[in-house]
């Protein structure tokens, strides 16, 4: 793929943008590590208004949650992703003045992120306290080929002087004093107490250990080159490289440093095996150079785009916006079956680096259909935490099955506010739903047998124990699920949340369906998991009798049993400065009103398209749109998709615009805390499930394309059961091409398109 402006992020007027925002936008990552695009001279200095640092997926510390009144079963520990020393950090010394002692003036001049290759190119202009000016250019990337590697190349050029300048490259200190703004609950509320020690090894190595979670990690830093001016001071208190230069404006000097960020180990194993781990970390950079490492990484990135790119012709800004989102998703996703995707990716400490339902419901589809091996790794993380989810269910007095945590890193519940946290038990059904989507799209029966079925079964078992058959009122005889919180966090602890019940119903049905499949594939699995006919019968019955609240008079799906008995919150007359409402009202105020933070019942309409006809969907849409604030960035994508389904193209387009550009335009005002990863996944959903209308219809995989006005083309690829299919939509027609794999029929609206390789099928669109 040629270097193409359409793959480049080049924000104008960087000087006027908040450093934290710029750090997030240009953050680099590869699922294992993430590096914010900090001011490289500031390290983790508390005086700097940004928030520099390195994040390693799954490297977190614990601290006890202090409650005024702590009840049984409340989550015990905060889990907080660690902010690690900034690998971009560099010290200068000119005229005897060091930049880490006396601040140099540094002006961000330019940043270009070429997402086609993954390279970030930055220029800074630096003025020393003695008025010497020089340009610092940085080229950096997080390797997509070797997830432990991060590389940075510095280029220094004098601008107004000739003379000596010394560069010192060493690991930065951890800043444990980062000030916190406790007024915004979405921000990380605490720093970490890390132990940072330096090892006197062949290259500067830092050993990081957490206090309570007892995790250890090695980070090595190696000069990659042979310039004799680079001196290693291995025995200094803080081992470093020192580079004494004699600069002239004509001659620049370049130096490359490779970082190897090791695996996370528990501290005991870490101490016992440190030498072996170190050897492994160092070996990764052996005989490597900037070019060799970059070529390997760029080749992998190219492959990513080949499978995952989306073309939007006719709107260059959206084209860029969507690529920005897709690449950030790729950078954020854990790939080792032990880590997931934090809500902020690896770009910030917002939400403490926790994993939520965001992965399964918003981000996983993109990976399932374009990078299925990553989707499998992400579900693998859930499978790895199944035992913890089992323990949690027991703690919650649920005798069988599992309860996954609402927010977590290590698999234990970390939500200190249970009404809008732990009570979102729909997370269980979300994981089951996503597991089914993965198996359906890939046909991966190995995964079904080795992990998928257990995930679906154990989550199904939970519902039978959590819910019950009602004896009174309109619910009598039905299976009900009381006291839950649905996706909408402005309505908590309700009975029969439509979304939760519909998802639980699906979860139960999936367990029955896959048990039947396993009976043929691996009957011993059913025996080992103690699945009985009686249990499957109970699943079937509860699903059939599941209560789904509905108002006959208004012909409306109800968010919960009591939804219409609450007064409507006057959203229209609320001052704009009061949004998001969560920062201005006590939860109990919001809970008493009909006011939604995000799509809830509509989320169910989105996920189960064949449940309702268009008239029903339109009624649901109009009603819920009127009470939704979109205070959560997870909301607009769903409204965009459903607007397409009810043929409201202007709305679909407007909601999509906000979704696609949420972080680039700082729509939520908090991008400095990290990207809104679920929303980024939502932008792919809006394109593929919305404008291309992809869904499982009654006949099979179906598309209902509708291009927004002004767009000339929307094109993307999906993988489906060993095939790759390209979908190419224009205003008047849509073309389906089977790029690889066995012949297959997709549906465009009602029209079957029998696909075989080299035989694209074009369908004329009615909306032409
Ligand atoms: C949303 C949740 C989401 C969480 C993390 C909250 O604001 O309401 O649905 O899981 O953010 O992104």
From TrEMBL:
Domain Glycoside hydrolase family 65 N-terminal, residue spans: 16-253
Highest taxon, organism lineage: Bacteria
Domain Glycoside hydrolase family 65 C-terminal: 700-749
Keywords associated with the record: Glycosyltransferase, Hydrolase, Transferase
InterPro entries: 6-hairpin_glycosidase_sf (IPR008928), 6hp_glycosidase-like_sf (IPR012341), Gal_mutarotase_sf_dom (IPR011013), GH65_N (IPR037018), Glyco_hydro_65_C (IPR005194), Glyco_hydro_65_M (IPR005195), Glyco_hydro_65_N (IPR005196), Malt_Pase/Glycosyl_Hdrlase (IPR017045)
Coiled-coil ranges from the UniProt annotation: none
An MF annotation (GO) of this entry: hydrolase activity
Domain Glycoside hydrolase family 65 central catalytic, chain residue ranges per copy: 323-684
Keyword Glycosyltransferase: yes
Similarity comment text for this entry: Belongs to the glycosyl hydrolase 65 family.
Protein name: Glycoside hydrolase family 65 protein
Organism field: Loigolactobacillus binensis
């Amino acid at each position: 793929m040629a270097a193409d402006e359409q793959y480049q992020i080049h924000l104008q007027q960087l000087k006027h943008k908040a450093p934290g925002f710029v750090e997030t936008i240009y953050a680099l990552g590869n699922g294992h590590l993430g590096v914010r695009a900090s001011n490289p001279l500031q390290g983790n200095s508390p005086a700097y208004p940004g928030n520099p640092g390195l994040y390693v997926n799954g490297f977190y510390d614990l601290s006890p949650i202090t409650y005024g009144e702590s009840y049984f079963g409340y989550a015990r520990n905060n889990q907080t992703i660690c902010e690690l020393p900034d690998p971009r950090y560099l010290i200068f010394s000119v005229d005897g003045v060091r930049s880490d002692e006396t601040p140099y003036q540094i002006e961000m001049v330019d940043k270009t992120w070429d997402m086609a290759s993954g390279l970030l190119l930055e220029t800074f202009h630096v003025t020393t306290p003695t008025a010497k000016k020089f340009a610092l250019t940085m080229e950096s990337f997080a390797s997509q080929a070797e997830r432990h590697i991060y590389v940075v190349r510095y280029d220094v050029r004098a601008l107004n002087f000739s003379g000596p300048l010394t560069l010192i490259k060493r690991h930065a200190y951890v800043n444990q004093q980062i000030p916190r703004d406790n007024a915004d609950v979405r921000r990380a509320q605490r720093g970490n107490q890390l132990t940072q020690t330096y090892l006197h090894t062949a290259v500067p190595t830092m050993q990081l250990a957490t206090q309570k979670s007892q995790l250890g990690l090695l980070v090595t830093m190696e000069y990659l080159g042979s310039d004799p001016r680079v001196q290693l001071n291995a025995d200094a208190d803080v081992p470093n490289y020192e580079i004494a230069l004699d600069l002239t404006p004509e001659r620049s000097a370049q130096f490359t440093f490779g970082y190897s960020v090791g695996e996370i180990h528990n501290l005991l194993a870490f101490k016992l095996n440190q030498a072996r781990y170190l050897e492994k970390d160092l070996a990764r950079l052996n005989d490597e150079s900037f070019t060799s490492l970059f070529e390997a990484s760029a080749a992998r990135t190219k492959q990513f785009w080949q499978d995952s790119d989306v073309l939007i012709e006719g709107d260059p800004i959206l084209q860029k916006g969507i690529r920005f989102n897709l690449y950030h998703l790729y950078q954020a996703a854990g790939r080792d079956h032990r880590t997931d995707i934090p809500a902020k990716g690896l770009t910030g400490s917002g939400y403490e680096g926790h994993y939520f339902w965001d992965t399964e419901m918003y981000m996983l589809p993109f990976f399932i259909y374009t990078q299925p091996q990553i989707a499998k790794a992400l579900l693998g993380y859930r499978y790895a935490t199944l035992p913890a989810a089992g323990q949690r269910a027991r703690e919650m007095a649920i005798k069988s099955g599992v309860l996954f945590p609402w927010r977590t890193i290590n698999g234990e519940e970390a939500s200190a506010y249970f009404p809008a946290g732990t009570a979102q038990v729909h997370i269980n059904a979300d994981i089951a739903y996503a597991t089914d989507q993965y198996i359906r799209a890939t046909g991966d029966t190995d995964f079904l047998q080795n992990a998928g079925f257990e995930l679906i079964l154990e989550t199904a078992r939970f519902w039978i124990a959590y819910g019950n058959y009602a004896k009174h009122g309109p619910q009598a005889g039905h299976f009900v699920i009381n006291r839950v919180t649905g996706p909408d966090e402005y309505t908590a602890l309700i009975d029969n949340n439509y979304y939760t019940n519909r998802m639980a119903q699906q979860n139960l049905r999936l367990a029955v369906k896959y048990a039947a499949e396993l009976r043929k594939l691996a009957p011993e699995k059913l025996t080992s998991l103690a699945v009985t006919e009686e249990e499957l019968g109970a699943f079937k019955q509860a699903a059939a009798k599941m209560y789904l609240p509905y108002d006959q008079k208004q012909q409306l799906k109800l968010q919960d049993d009591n939804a219409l008995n609450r007064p409507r919150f006057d959203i229209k007359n609320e001052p704009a400065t009061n949004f998001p409402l969560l920062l201005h009202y006590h939860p109990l105020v919001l809970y008493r009103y009909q006011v939604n933070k995000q799509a809830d019942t509509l989320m169910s309409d989105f996920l189960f398209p064949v449940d309702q006809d268009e008239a029903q969907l339109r009624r649901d849409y109009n009603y819920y749109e009127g009470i939704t604030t979109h205070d959560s960035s997870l909301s607009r994508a769903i409204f965009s998709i459903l607007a397409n389904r009810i043929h409201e193209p202007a709305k679909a387009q407007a909601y999509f615009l906000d979704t696609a550009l949420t972080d680039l335009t700082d729509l939520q005002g908090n991008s400095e805390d990290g990207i809104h990863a679920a929303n980024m996944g939502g932008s792919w959903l809006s394109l593929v499930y919305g404008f291309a209308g992809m869904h499982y219809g009654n006949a099979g995989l179906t598309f209902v394309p509708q291009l927004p006005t002004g767009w000339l083309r929307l094109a993307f690829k999906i993988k489906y059961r060993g095939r790759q299919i390209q979908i190419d939509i224009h205003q008047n027609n849509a073309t389906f091409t089977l790029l690889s794999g066995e012949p297959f029929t997709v549906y465009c609206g009602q029209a079957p398109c029998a696909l075989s390789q080299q035989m694209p099928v074009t369908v004329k669109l009615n909306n032409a």
